[in-house]
Structures are given as C-alpha cells and as structure tokens.
Design brief:
Blueprint lengths: L1 E6 L21 H16 L6 E4 L3 H13 L6 E3 L9 H10 L6 E6 L3 H11 L13 E6 L8 E7 L1 H5 L3
Helix pairs in contact: 1-2
C-alpha cells in the first residue's frame, strides 16, 4: 500500500469571530489559494488515490475537497472521525484494515499532532519521533502490511514550498 498523509492547509485562528468551534475553523483565502497550487503539483506528479479519507473538521474537509476536485476524485472522498483532532489512531487503522478491497493508494487528510504520531507509529512503533509536518505538507509511506506498529518505510516528505516548486 502507498499511504499518503497530508496536513490541512492554512486555517483561521482559533477564536476568530464567526467560527464557534474548532471543528468549524475554515481555510483562509491564502490557504485555499496555496492548496490549489499544491493540488496542481500533485496532479503533475501523477498522484492517484483509490480513496481520500479526511477528518470532517472544516479545514481538513476543505483541503481534501480541493485535492479531490483537482485530481477528479470527488467520488473517492470519504470522512472519518478517527482523523479529527484528537481522533483515535488505533480505530483509524482498524477501519483501514477492514476495508475490502484494501486501497492500494490512500490519502489521509488530517491534523497535527495526530498525523505526526501516526507517521511515527508506522515508522518506528512508537509516537516519540519528532516530525515537523507543515500545514499543506505531504508525505508518502510505503506499507507492506498495515498495522498499529512499525510497518512502513518513508518514501518522501515534502513541505508546501517544495510542492509548489513543482508547478
């Protein structure tokens, strides 16, 4: 399995008027603009996904929708509360293990620190690895047998700036 992790784009700050809860916080205009460029680069990289699974929080949902739209994969977009802020990573992995047929190319869109913890668990078996996962960043993990523990190899990790250079 090729497992891609993407952090949501730039969002309005917590406490911004008009956004009652953390789940409501949307992407900023700059965040949407940046993600359109990143999605264009992802298309140029010829990335394709069998499934795009996103946190239902507004900023992650909007990130996933921009990517899915650019790659013409809107029908492959789904949401999981396990990817929400403070989501349950073990539950997420159980959900993924139960999928039939198992996706071969999967994009997960979520939040920090959950994505870094997931990456650390899949690479080392614990969540202590320090990872600077930037907003709108993207990484690719190669996974032989998905499970909670060390089962992946880091293929690459790109910052938003690096991705935009590809357009």
């Amino acid at each position: 399995m090729m497992l891609y992790l993407m952090r949501h784009g730039l969002a309005v700050e917590a406490g911004t008027p008009g956004f009652k809860t953390d789940a409501d916080r949307a992407l900023t205009h700059k965040g949407r603009r940046q993600l359109r460029k990143i999605a264009k680069a992802m298309k140029k990289m010829e990335l394709e996904f069998d499934l795009i699974l996103s946190s239902p929080f507004a900023r992650a949902r909007q990130t996933a929708e921009i990517v899915a739209g650019a790659l013409k994969l809107k029908k492959k977009l789904k949401f999981s509360n396990a990817l929400a802020v403070d989501g349950d990573l073990e539950l997420l992995l159980r959900q993924l293990e139960r999928m039939k047929p198992a996706p071969k190319h999967l994009l997960l869109v979520g939040h920090e620190p959950s994505l870094s913890h997931l990456m650390s668990i899949l690479l080392t078996g614990n969540s202590r690895m320090k990872i600077d996962f930037k907003k709108s960043g993207l990484c690719k993990l190669e996974v032989d047998q998905l499970r909670f523990g060390a089962c992946a190899t880091l293929a690459w990790m790109l910052t938003p700036g690096q991705i935009k250079l590809m357009t």
